[in-house]
UniProtKB/TrEMBL annotation:
Keywords: Glycosyltransferase, Transferase
Domain of life: Bacteria
Transferase listed as a keyword: yes
InterPro entries on file: Glyco_trans_1
Name of protein: Glycosyltransferase involved in cell wall bisynthesis
Molecular function as annotated in GO: glycosyltransferase activity
Keyword Transcription: no
A biological process from GO: carbohydrate derivative metabolic process
Domain Glycosyl transferase family span(s) in chain numbering: 172-323
Record-linked CDD domains: GT4_PimA-like
């Protein structure tokens, strides 16, 4: 079949979304299909640029190009999922979060009221036209149900390089690889360090807008000997950093899906997450594959201490996590089968 995959592109900003977009494109090609990507340039500000892109996408008929018929369109992101095709499969990674679950956190939300309504109306209208509607996770599906009254089927996909993760004896540290941003809440783990009594270290991987603030917080709390910002790392280093950890912390606010949970499970490591972390809660089972705690530093510290005090139990939880990953049947082949079948 001739397939088009639509998504967005923000120049010089790359991350997990690119793994998702390229991953499904490559999987469809491996399945024998002709696949092209159409990526719309996206700017977060001003809102006028988003409104213009919404209007542009909804005007696009992707049924054929120069007489060449397109069999199906698979859309992944706002607002590109507004394009038209008689067999349009939409797999929502997430919506424009600033006008949905993050709206109350916006400093200028009064000025965004009209824009919020415009985006909500757009999503409800264009997503209702999809021949099949999927969501990146049960959490994303729940938002679609709550805000747009639409039912989407959760469809999980594997993290990049899933086959390369492995487990090894721990070197007594908690690993948290992610962008250093407010929503990822590395601050919870930094603040938890002051309550630790065991010699467990904390390694924070990645870079981002909160790096200076986190360095200042580490110094303020006097935990420089325990908390380390290790910056960027290679793919090979990533697999080792997971493999040698005692456990993985992943406590963002209301995450859509979260590769980190799955990467930790593939590495046979228990995950500590929070009660309001969203996507990770679909995989982390309290006391079985990790710990679920309130987003409070003292509670996170207590969970870390439990991992250190009983490493045998920690290893068992990690093994249970890897087994749970297998039971979820998370694979690109499953993704392709789901996206292309009619029911």
């Amino acid at each position: 079949m001739k397939l088009l995959v639509t998504a967005c592109q923000v120049p010089f900003m790359h991350g997990g979304a690119d793994y998702h977009i390229d991953g499904v494109t490559d999987a469809l090609r491996r399945a024998g299909h002709q696949v092209e990507q159409v990526r719309f340039p996206f700017k977060f500000n001003p809102t006028r640029s988003i409104e213009e892109l919404m209007a542009h996408c909804e005007q696009q008929d992707f049924s054929e190009f120069n007489g060449l018929q397109i069999d199906k369109v698979i859309s992944l992101q706002f607002p590109g999922y507004g394009v038209r095709h008689p067999d349009h499969r939409v797999w929502v990674m997430h919506q424009h979060r600033a006008v949905y679950e993050l709206f109350d956190q916006q400093p200028d939300k009064r000025q965004l009221e009209a824009f919020k309504q415009q985006v909500t109306d757009y999503d409800t209208r264009v997503l209702a036209r999809a021949s099949r509607l999927f969501a990146n996770s049960a959490n994303v599906a729940s938002r679609l149900r709550q805000f747009n009254g639409l039912n989407a089927l959760p469809l999980y996909h594997p993290p990049h390089g899933a086959e390369h993760f492995y487990c090894a004896d721990d070197w007594e540290y908690i690993f948290y690889p992610s962008r250093l941003e407010t929503l990822k809440r590395q601050s919870l783990l930094i603040e938890a360090a002051q309550y630790l009594r065991s010699p467990v270290r904390i390694l924070l991987g990645g870079s981002g807008g909160q790096e200076a603030q986190y360095r200042a917080l580490i110094e303020k709390l006097g935990v420089q000997d325990r908390v380390h910002l290790i910056g960027r790392f290679s793919e090979a280093e990533k697999y080792t950093l997971y493999a040698r950890s005692l456990g993985v912390f992943f406590g963002p606010y209301d995450e859509d899906y979260g590769y980190i949970t799955l990467e930790a499970m593939l590495s046979g490591k228990p995950v500590i997450t929070c009660t309001d972390s969203g996507g990770p809660l679909e995989f982390v089972r309290e006391g079985e594959t990790g710990y679920v705690r309130e987003p409070e530093p003292e509670q996170i510290a207590e969970a870390i201490e439990r991992l250190y005090a009983d490493k045998q139990a920690a290893a068992a939880m990690g093994a249970a996590g890897r087994e749970s990953y297998s039971q979820h049947n998370i694979s690109w082949q499953q993704v392709v089968n789901s996206l292309l079948t009619d029911n």
